[in-house]
Amino acid sequence: MKGSSYYWGTGRRKTAIARVRIRPGSGAVKINDREVEEYFPRQVWVNHALEPLKVTGMEGKLDVFVSAFGGGLTGQSGAVRLGIARALLKMNPDLRPVLKQGGFLTRDPRMVERKKFGLKGARARRQYSKR
Question: What is the superkingdom listed in this entry's lineage (predicted)?
Fold first, then answer.
């Protein structure tokens, strides 16, 4: 059972949440039981999500299993990125300087600003008519 132990990491971005499990393996990456290229149709999202593995040199050495929900695909790719970085940190604390320098351990705090009453959006106002 020792070889099949998982390391967990939770990532969040906007309103998306990703629960990430990693273990030593052949390099398979599954998001919601689908291949990563199938789940994220744009290569930008794939590269963004798997960047911590590339920087640490663990690409192809770990199996990654992700449960992602909420938000859109951009938010989910950012959540997967943070979740993978946190799981890598639990697996090997010596990777902290590399992950920290790349900015992978920082949760992106930007959220959608709420709509205010009396306005069309968060800040957009109605057009002024002089006459």
Answer: Bacteria
CATH code that applies to domain 2-102: 3.30.230.10
Q: State the average pLDDT over residues 63-81.
A: 96
> Nearest CA to 65 among 34, 96, 99?
34
**pLDDT above 60 (res 44):** yes
Query: Two tokens at 84?
Result: 């993978």
Cα–Cα distance between 129 and 122 in angstroms, integer? 21
What pLDDT shows up at residue 1?
A: 40
Q: Give residue 106's Cα distance to chain centre.
A: 11
Please tell me the distance from the alpha carbon of residue 96 to that of residue 101, in angstroms, as a whole number.
8
Do 86 and 80 touch, CB atoms closer than 8 A? Answer: no
For range 35-60, the mean pLDDT: 95
- Separation of alpha carbons 85 and 11, rounded Å: 9
Q: How far is it, in rounded angstroms, from Cα 95 to Cα 62?
A: 15
**pLDDT at residue 4 tops 90:** no
Q: Report the sign of the C-alpha dihedral through residues 34, 35, 36, 38, in that order.
A: negative
